[in-house]
From TrEMBL:
Assigned keywords, A-Z: ATP-binding, Nucleotide-binding, Transport
Protein name according to UniProt: ABC transporter, ATP-binding protein
Signal peptide positions on this chain: none
InterPro entries given in the database record: AAA+_ATPase, ABC_transporter-like_ATP-bd, ABC_transporter-like_CS, MacB-like_ATP-bd, P-loop_NTPase
Keyword ATP-binding: yes
Record-annotated ABC transporter domain positions: 2-231
Lineage: superkingdom: Archaea
Family: Belongs to the ABC transporter superfamily.
PROSITE patterns, A to Z: ABC_TRANSPORTER_1 (PS00211), ABC_TRANSPORTER_2 (PS50893)
Pfam families attached to this UniProt entry: ABC_tran
Statement: the UniProt record of this protein carries the keyword ATP-binding: yes
Gene Ontology molecular function: ATP binding; ATP hydrolysis activity
Amino acid sequence: MIVVKDLKRYYGSGETTVKALNGVSFEIKKGQFVAIMGASGSGKTTVLRILALLDDATDGEYTIRGLQVSNLPEAERSYYRLTQVGYVFQDYALINEMTAAENVYVLSMMEGKSKKESYKTALEALDKVGLKDKHDRIPDELSGGEKQRVAIARAIAKKPDIMFADEPCANLDTRNSKQVLEVFKDLNDNYGQTIIMVTHEPWHVEYVDRVITLEDGKLVSDELIEESGSA
Ligand SMILES: Nc1ncnc2c1ncn2[C@@H]1O[C@H](COP(=O)(O)OP(=O)(O)OP(=O)(O)O)[C@@H](O)[C@H]1O
């Protein structure tokens, strides 16, 4: 589903050039739940942002479902970002003045769907993350884990091809992190959602199918994880 070939991302020029990604290649199959791991500064966020079309590569190719997204004109990239890709960030990126349901359906309304249809989709998405009964709460009335689950509901409401998550549990305690990871795992197991998640927590590995590890902008290991049954 995703093919990445010799991806490079350099920042700056001359002697001060930072090679954030220095020739990374891998393929990700539809329905995989992949963790991208590695030390701070190894290039994890950079690779995620490029695949999520939030940044451009310096060199290399990447295709999503056979579409050479690296070469798409900006208007198509923007449409793709809005409609085909789900994002979950560490700071939730919710709108404080809106309820959970409104935060979820705002994107769908931007696509031109009716309020009634958007609301129905939002409630279904909130149900999938276990928060249907809190649909009318504003973010300040929710725990960190619940806010992150609203952000996940917002991402899945548009039924994305791929969901990208950058350190989604960075601001959460263990209990809330587990709830968020269980939601991801459920979406992956029961709905075949493809998920690419950046994390630096070793214990998160038990929730994923595969771990790609980066070091200094290069891929240093790529492991399939056996289901332990404990997650
Ligand atoms: N906009 C930028 N300008 C210059 N250098 C950058 C920029 N963004 C990232 N870098 C550098 O690229 C390298 C990789 O950064 P990246 O954020 O991908 O690492 P990371 O593995 O996600 O790190 P962390 O775990 O700390 O978030 C780092 O050396 C970083 O300083």
